[in-house]
Structure of Helix-turn-helix domain-containing protein:
Amino acid sequence: MNSVKVGGLIQSLRKEKNMTQNDLALLMNISDKTISKWERGLGCPDISLLNELSTILGVNIEKILSGELQSNDRDSGSMKRVKFYSCKSCGNVMTSTGAINISCCGRILETLQIKKDSGDHDIAVHETEDDYFVTLEHEMSREHYISFAAYVSYDRFMLIKMYPEQNAELRFPKMYGGSLYVNCTQHGLFKHEKIEQRRIVKSEKSIADH
């Protein structure tokens, strides 16, 4: 651990928040001389103080210890790069369009790996004037169900959470040129390309029947 780099990062983050060394010291219930010592690279924060320092400065502990923040490449603006994350403990669903560390329930989440549609998740798309109404031939028990679906086009996306014992169906506005992502609790995340090219049922009655 490079104490000079750690001190430089602490100083930079403190100034970003318009805090003096004394302000930071008061929040942490330590002396401003200790803060000064860190920032001059003459020592590093004790491990017992890292969690509080991380919270105050708004930076992960590992970044403080490394002494640097690495910026991601600028977002290209395309939602087609979206990545999905799902917490196995609470079911929380999160997304990103760039490199990011995401944690939930105390665990770092891994990106859900996209699988090719095997054909086991049959989809019917019912087209209305303004919407798509999608039905899935899929079990919706507590042990095996579709946990979320998302429709992604170039510059926007719509995510719909789904729950066991409800119908495996969803409705969303038409966004041409997009793809449908469906996450199964047992088989993972599947991507269905170009939903408008799938089996379309242009019938208001077929929707009413559902």
